Amino acid sequence: MAAQAVQIRRLTREEFDRLVASGFFHPEERLELIEGELIQMTPQGSAHASAIRLIEEALRTSFGTGHDVRVQMPLALLRDSEPEPDVAVVVGSARTYRDAHPNAAVLVVEVADATLEYDRGRKADLYARAGIPELWILNLSDRRLEVSRDPGTEGVDRARYRTHLVFAASDSVAPLGCPGVSIAVSDLLP
After folding, report:
1. What is the pLDDT of residues 115-155, one digit of tens each?
2. Fewest CB atoms less than 10 Å from the CB: which of 85, 102, 107, 108?
C-alpha cells in the first residue's frame, strides 16, 4: 500500500472572514492570514508600540485628506491573505471601508525587531505580489528605515521588490504617495 502524502488545508480570505465573524477565535487572539496560513502575531514591546504611534502621526500629517492611515487593521490582499500591517496608508477615509477591508495600499509599514527576517522575506514578498508600491520596515535593532519599492513578478506566483533603500536615523525619506513631503527617520524611531 502506498504512503499517503500529507495534505495541508489552507484557508481563503473569505473562509477566514467567516470564522472571524462567527466568533470562532478568541477576541484577544491576534491572527493574520498569510498565504492561507494563520499566523499568530507576536506581542509588542513598548518600543514597538511607540514606533507605531510615531509612524502613524508622521503619516497622518504627511498624507492628510484623501488618505486613511490604518493601524494594525486588515488589508484584503489576494485570495489567501489578510495581513494586519503595523501601519497602512490607503486611499479614501475610514468610512470608505465600512463594508469591506481595503484591498490595496499606497504604503505599508512594518515595525521589526524580533520579526525582522520574516518581514523582509515572507511579508515583503506578499506585499510585492499584491502590488503594494512601497514597503517600509522600521528596523528597531539597527535604528534605520528599510524601504522597498517597485514590485515586480518573478515567475508564477512570485514577486519581489526591485528597489531597496536604507535610511539612517539622520536621513529623511519622501513617501512615493506624497513625494513633496520629507519625513525625518529620527521622527519615526522611539
Report:
1. 999 999 999 999 999 999 999 999 999 999 999 999 998 76
2. 102
User: Which candidate, 124, 138, 150, places its Cα nearest to that of 87?
Assistant: 138
For residue 110, the tally of other CB atoms under 10 A from its CB is 25
For 147-188, what is each residue's pLDDT tens digit?
999 999 876 667 899 999 999 999 999 999 998 999 999 999
User: Are 102 and 92 spatial neighbours (Cβ–Cβ below 8 Å)?
Assistant: yes
Rounded distance between C-alpha atoms, residue 60 and residue 107, angstroms: 12
Q: Name the DSSP class of 154.
A: -
- Calpha distance 35→145 (Å, rounded): 26
- pTM (2 d.p.): 0.90
Cα separation, 168 vs 144, in Å, equals 5
44-187 has which fold? tt1808, chain A (3.90.1570)
